Amino acid sequence: MREKHKCAIAAGNALTVEAGKVIFELGGNAFDAAIAATLAAFVTEPTLTSAGGGGFLLAHTSKKRNILFDFFTQTPRQKRPLSEVNFYPIDIDFGDTIQSFHIGLGSIATPGNLAGLFAVHQHLGSLPFKAIAEPAIEYAERGITLSAFQDTCINQYLYPILLAEPLGQKLFAPSGCLVKAGDRFYMKNFAATLREISCKGVDEFYRGEIARKLVTDCRDRGGYLTREDLENYRVIQRQPLTIRYRDYEIITNPPPSSGGTLIAFALKLLETIEVGSLALGSPQYIELLARAMQLTNVARKDGYNANLYDEDVAEKFLSPEHLALYQQQLTEGVNRWGSTTHISTIDDQGNAASITTSNGEGSAYIIPGTDIMVNNMLGEEDLNPSGFHQWPCDRRMSSMMSPTLILQNGNPLFVLGSGGSNRIRTAILQVIINLLDFQLPLEVAVANSRVHWENNLLNIEPPFPSERVAKLQLPNETEVLLWKAQNMFFGGVHAVGKAEGGWVTGAGDPRREGAVAGVC
């Protein structure tokens, strides 16, 4: 985006972006635009997010306040015998690998997306919620043209989940065949539902007829959720995690979510090295990133995971004493789906919003009469490290989602975040380095090739010559996978920021059909 604009939005779909742009043009602020775009994404990106999922919004206000709205999913308040639970694996073929996901009503955690959007609007919005919801309602009622990326998500990957229940078949295969790119995709029940919620308030979802349908089906068909789970759900306002990196202030998601703290840890490791003096994409640079990612994973097991819910876990994890152990090692040593989407907004009043939401892969269960597929967060292996059904009751779940702000002199310079499961933190880390260490333009910083190290496997996007792989000095027992093309595996970073002259700029990640728009 090279034109001169005062407000900007970046997201994972052109229609998602358009919804936010319309709100900007109506005089809305960055938070109004972010809410509108998120509601629209429930229709335009239905395989990545949903009103039945959860997420986070990181806000920077014109009064220079930083607030993290945590509306991620909550574990149920009680359990039931496993023999009664509707919870089962389903295999997804990703070409090179087959992965099992767990779905069913027993995979549903208490959803928070709608509660979160209403809470943000109540505290920071400027336009009426009914006006903000109108683009999403119009998309759902009149239909949208399904994008090529959503076609891939539906027809190549998630169709076993989308077709597992009759209501999913009706929504995603209304004529008997799955919708495909270029087809009109409708969510007319969601249009009516969102219109009602916009008029009557979010209690319609958590205490009204929708709640009754959801908890009745959970009771009768093997889910955990009860009316008490929905009635007691609360959005939590948290103090964001803040660190200094070089001459900048990084604001991100605090514990109990993990992604922001792990990004901060990796940045603090790299701060001891002049990263910008290396050639971007060179063997030396890739070796450095791989080592930093590996050490972050090791450190995560050393006092972080076990103390995730301690009030001072981030302070101890990022303390100079703890960091020093790993900074020394770094100096000495110089394939999964991710159903998540991200939206970044910035306006001319000094407001900025970074919002990441997810539905997992979806539980396959759709609340009757709403077109809302509910999350499968209790069936997400990454979110249940102690094993399925071992979660503590009534606790906010942890997440890798890491909406992030970069401030300079107290003002928002860049707003970014990503989808991509465990790759969220490494995708954001690399874009931050591209922006701050290599001073790349925002579009280039987002589009540049990425790497991801995990479980002794280093994934590398092209272009990286295969003949150089054997010469890489990597952590012990590391194998290398050279990808043939850039891929959504490596996340989807959608970002906006300040450009020269006080104007704004933006970049949507090409790996996930990212789009951007500005408003004068």
Descriptive notes:
With 520 residues, this protein is of the alpha+beta class. The chain has 16 helices and 24 strands. The strands form 7 sheets. It has a 7-stranded antiparallel beta sheet with strand order 8-3-2-12-11-1-24, covered by helices on one side. A 6-stranded antiparallel beta sheet has the order 9-10-15-16-22-23. It has a 3-stranded mixed beta sheet with strand order 18-19-20. The longest helix is centred in the middle third of the chain and has 18 residues, at 283-300. It is globular, with a radius of gyration of 22 Å. The two termini are 13 Å apart.
Give a concise summary.
With 520 residues, the protein is of the alpha+beta class. It has helices spanning 14-25, 30-44, 113-124, 129-142, 148-162, 166-172, 188-200, 203-206, 209-221, 227-231, 259-270, 283-300, 313-317, 320-332, 424-436, 442-447; strands at 7-11, 54-60, 66-71, 88-93, 98-103, 144-145, 184-185, 236-238, 241-245, 248-252, 340-346, 352-358, 366-367, 372-373, 404-408, 411-416, 418-419, 451-454, 457-460, 479-482, 492-493, 495-498, 504-507, 515-519. Strands 8-3-2-12-11-1-24 form a 7-stranded antiparallel β-sheet, covered by helices on one side.
